[in-house]
Design brief:
single chain, 279 residues, Rossmann fold, 10 strands, 44% helix
Length: 279
């Protein structure tokens, strides 16, 4: 290599730090995340967050480097969720992630412009979060985790695992999702020879025990738990009550089986957090 070429290379090298310093730093993006019906010590919530963070990392987004994630926990408290949504929106996030129906509602009350991505939501059209599944419109979009017709399948499964069942308690949340799921099961109940009794979800284990006692009559009873925001203590209490009274039970998600439940049939609640949002 000739001397002139060496000098040219050295001259260019001395300019590199100056050019690099002149490059603008990548802006750190901010994501607000709220899980509506879970607590910080709930294993299900931690599983979803872990999947979400891993999904971001696989696509080059590292918390603390080029993205910052702000977490809030709804803990089944609507007022707490409204406060948390307002706090997150005040941080000027680029996007927020809503885990559950009530989280979506809280975010939409706080802002109609910040993009909202939801996961584990039932009937977003009927709830008014989006216009249609094909064209959501507004500032919200995401993934639903329940098709109401599954409630009929839960009843069918209950009859398959316990053919003698003639009465079933349907635990539900008293809103449009709970009503619709109960209606879907009720539509097939006569053909299966099962009498259904709706029981609204309780937050207190003692109240759930009382509801069980008021329902039970004999050995041909069963339980269906619909898809609604149940915290870990409630899940464990429902599973324990069913086991204690030796009642066959069908649950909407795998996490109930992980807590000791008999059988579940429903959507994977973790995958949307790791794949779909991070695309």
């Amino acid at each position: 290599m000739r001397r002139r070429e060496v000098i040219g290379l050295l001259g260019g090298a001395t300019a590199w730090p100056v050019v690099a310093a002149a490059q603008p730093r990548e802006r750190i993006r901010r994501i607000g995340l709220m899980l509506s019906g879970l607590t910080p010590d709930d294993s299900e919530g931690q599983t979803r967050i872990t999947a979400f963070v891993q999904g971001l990392q696989e696509r080059g987004w590292m918390d603390g480097r080029n993205v910052r994630i702000e977490y809030r926990w709804g803990i089944g408290d609507p007022e707490r969720q409204r406060r948390s949504a307002a706090e997150l929106m005040a941080l000027s996030p680029d996007v927020v992630l809503a885990g559950g129906n009530s989280a979506v509602e809280a975010f939409q009350q706080a802002s109609r412009t910040v993009p909202i991505v939801f996961a584990n939501v039932g009937d977003p059209v009927g709830a008014g979060y989006i216009a249609t599944l094909a064209r959501p419109g507004g500032n919200a979009t995401g993934f639903m985790n329940i098709e109401f017709s599954l409630a009929a399948k839960w009843l069918e499964l209950l009859k398959q695992i316990a053919p003698r069942v003639s009465r079933a308690a349907v635990f539900r949340y008293p809103n449009v999702n709970g009503t619709s799921q109960f209606a879907a099961a009720q539509a097939v109940a006569p053909t299966l020879g099962v009498e259904l009794t709706p029981i609204d979800g309780r937050s207190d284990a003692g109240e759930m025990e009382h509801a069980f006692s008021g329902f039970m009559r004999g050995p041909n009873d069963g339980i269906i738990v619909t898809s609604f925001g149940i915290q870990q203590p409630q899940r464990e209490a429902l599973v324990a009550l069913a086991a204690r009274h030796r009642l066959p039970a069908v649950y909407p998600f795998r996490r109930f089986v992980a807590d000791g439940g008999l059988i579940s049939f429903g959507a994977d609640q973790v995958t949307p957090w790791s794949v779909d949002f991070a695309k």
